[in-house]
């Protein structure tokens, strides 16, 4: 997050990670889905495709259509982004592309799925970070929720999974990885003492 703070796609990465959004859901976020008075943000529109944008007033499944609390950090970020876009609009005048999408280029043109992927990978490389898929941000959210002790049903609801089997697969994988890390920590703590006991015997 520190590395992406000054990146153009930084606000989108932050929002994606906070809510565990799919790429299509993050690209499809529109200002009409944000209620700054009620402090809610609704996932009800997606953008898919590669070099061409395919917009849909639908989500991957019924469960994917969900409303979150607009958390203070995200609210501040979006308000600043809204002001920035108004500034771009005034500067570019007729050269600005008017639309309701939240995450877009400075000229107002919405991000294409393939261009977002390339921008994300280039930013990772610029900051010397390991390469990962944009979708891995969603898995990172799941990992954090597992680490914080939330159960599988809570994580299912947060991520908008229709089938708990999908959540279970992620949960099981992350829980196994966490147990491996715990075992490594114990080995680091007790390993040397254990070897000394064996050596004395």
The outline comes out as: globular
End-to-end separation in angstroms reads 51 Å
Regarding quaternary structure, what we see is single chain
Count of extended strands: 5
Taking all Cα atoms into account, the compactness measure Rg is 21 Å
Structural class: mainly alpha
Averaged pLDDT: 84
Strand percentage lies at 5-15%
How many H/I helical runs? 7
Spans of 5+ residues with little confidence (pLDDT < 50)? none
- Biggest β-sheet: count, sense, barrel? 3 strands, antiparallel
What is the succession of H and E elements? HHEEEEEHHHHH
Spatial order of strands in the largest sheet: 1-2-5
Q: What fraction, in percent, of the residue positions are helical?
A: 40-55%
What attributes does this structure have?
201 residues; globular; mainly alpha; three-stranded antiparallel β-sheet; two-stranded antiparallel ribbon
Give the secondary structure arrangement, pairings included:
Layout: H1 10-19, H2 23-27, E1 34-35, E2 40-43, E3 46-48, E4 54-56, E5 66-69, H3 72-92, H4 113-126, H5 136-147, H6 152-159, H7 164-200
Antiparallel strand pairs: 1-2, 2-5, 3-4
Helix pairs in contact: 1-3, 1-5, 5-7, 6-7
Q: What report would you give on this structure?
A:
- This protein is mainly alpha-helical and 201 residues long.
- It is built from seven helices and five strands, in the order H-H-E-E-E-E-E-H-H-H-H-H.
- The strands form two sheets. The protein has a three-stranded antiparallel beta sheet with strand order 1-2-5, with no helix packed on it. The protein has a two-stranded antiparallel sheet with strand order 3-4.
- Strand 1 (34-35) and strand 2 (40-43) form a beta hairpin.
- The chain is globular and about 65 Å long.
- 22% of the residues are buried.
- The model has no long low-confidence stretch (mean pLDDT 84).
